[in-house]
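Example 3.2
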Amino acid sequence: MTLEKTNRMNYLIDFYQALLTPKQRNYMSLYYLDDYSLGEIAEEFEVSRQAVYDNIKRTETMLEQYEEKLALFEKFEQRQQLLQTLKRQVELTDDVSATISALENLE
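Structure, written as tokens:
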């Protein structure tokens, strides 16, 4: 599993956890947030490893479907990019203001 997928799933869990059942929330939290193995989760809940795997895969699919329809994560990423752009613009503005002040003080 790639770090990118793990990060994406962590965000999707954060955004859509209210739409999951308690069991789905538990499995996903343990697997993605707490880095439990399938075997450890299976042991904790006294179910088969395959049952945990199937539940996690179904839940991943559900989370992706929620994201397709609601786009909360996509909008979050867009807001973050716009915020970074705004911060850069403000920094540039501050730099320009400081330079103008320095020039004014030279006269």
